[in-house]
Every structure is written in C-alpha cells, then in structure tokens.
Design brief:
Helices cover about 15% and strands about 35% of the residues. With about 170 residues, it is an alpha+beta fold. A three-stranded antiparallel beta sheet has the order 2-3-4, with no helix packed on it. A two-stranded antiparallel ribbon has the order 1-7. Strands 5-6 form a two-stranded antiparallel ribbon.
C-alpha cells in the first residue's frame, strides 16, 4: 500500500494526463477568453489555480516586450467545470489543455494492488526534464496523452519551488 499526499499541482498534472478526449484547440480556447493578451504578450508561466471561497482565480506570468507582469482571471467556482486552461509545455508552439474541477474534494491517497508505478522526486520546476522522463517511461506520448494504462505516478519532494517554469 502506498501513501501519497495530493496537492494542487499533482491534481492538475493527473487531470491533463488522463483527460484528453474532446479538447478544444488553442484558437477555440482563446476565442472564449475575452481578456486574451495582445499578440506581443507571451505567457511565460502558469496557470496557477487558486480556489478561494466561492471563486476560482487563475494567474499567469506574462512577458510583454521585456516587461513581466501577472495577469489574474477569476470566475465563480460553479463556472469552473466549464473552464479549460491552456498550459505551455516548454516546446515553442506546443500546449495542452486542462479542465478545472467544479468542486474540490480530498483525493484518494492510498492504493493497493498497483502493478505499475513511476516515482519522481525533486524536478525543481524543470518541466522539460519531467516531460522527457514521462515520455521515456511510457507515461505520456508526444501529444501529452496518458499512455500508462492503470499505472500510477507518485511525486515526492519539493518539485515545484525552483526552476524556470515554476
């Protein structure tokens, strides 16, 4: 039996890895967002998703002509189930999407009978290395689709506190 403690980033990772059917394209997602940044503004980090009271806050770090700033979008929690966020991958022009949960709940933390497992520690915010590790071990394919069947990925350590894509 394995015990893990789920945090938001792990939930997001599992969510985007396991939900790939019916995703909207980059243009469809941006067409729904009336606050789309100007063309010379690049999202360099995020999304960071925070649930507070009855609201969901989504923060991105943007770079506009060398000036970095934080953009914050918000919506009622009830609208969260309809929200799809676009996430950069570290590969130019390659993104994946994540659908928000409509309700937060404690995730299951103990599993028995796990036949296949990959345990990862201390990626220090290096998304490129994480992507390569997951792909090399057959967890995701080149389009970030889950290919690990019923396998489990366990994250330990301080994997989100350092690096260029934190």
């Amino acid at each position: 039996m394995f015990r893990t403690h789920t945090i938001l980033i792990t939930a997001l990772l599992v969510s985007w890895l396991s939900h790939n059917a019916g995703r909207k394209t980059y243009n469809e997602i941006n067409a729904m967002n009336t606050d789309t940044p100007a063309m010379n503004t690049a999202v360099i980090d995020g999304p960071y998703v925070l649930y507070r009271n009855d609201s969901v806050f989504v923060k991105y770090i943007e770079n506009s002509n060398g000036v970095k700033s934080v953009r914050t979008d918000s919506m009622p929690v009830a609208s969260g189930s309809n929200a799809t966020l676009l996430v950069n991958t570290g590969e130019p022009g390659k993104t994946f999407s994540v659908s928000l949960k409509s309700k937060l709940s404690n995730e299951k933390a103990e599993y028995s009978g796990v036949k296949k497992m990959l345990v990862i520690s201390d990626i220090e915010g290096n998304f490129t290395a994480l992507r390569k590790l997951l792909q090399a071990n057959g967890v995701i394919d080149e389009n970030f689709n889950w290919t690990f069947s019923k396998g489990h990925v366990v994250f330990t350590g301080d994997f989100v506190d350092r690096g260029t894509m934190v």
